[in-house]
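--- STAGE predict ---
source: upstream dedup step, 1 unique chain passed
mode: sequence only
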Amino acid sequence: MGVSSALAIVGIGVAWFFFLSNPKAADGVAASAKPIHTLLLNKYYVDELYDAIVVQPLKRVSEWVLWKRVDAGLIDGIVNGSGTVVRGASAVLRMTQTGSIRTYAASLFFGVVVVLGYYLTR
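--- STAGE serialize ---
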């Protein structure tokens, strides 16, 4: 039997004693070694350290740069700007919709003159 097997058997015996045979003894050991118990209970404070060093800075960068600048500023600006351009162009084009056949014929004639003029001067 190797060292690791013996250590596993000792661990099983200690766990059996503290959690099944005498649970109050575990509370007594925890109370007598309070700082170590607190350190182990909080998993060496790895989660708190990771949150302070990695998670919170990334969250702040995401909120200030990605959300408020890129999403709200750039992307929403492009979408709202394109809507403003379409609204303005449609207001101009709406003025050309008169319902008069003479106006439409004149516009068609003017367009033909412009196209012919372009090709004849080239």
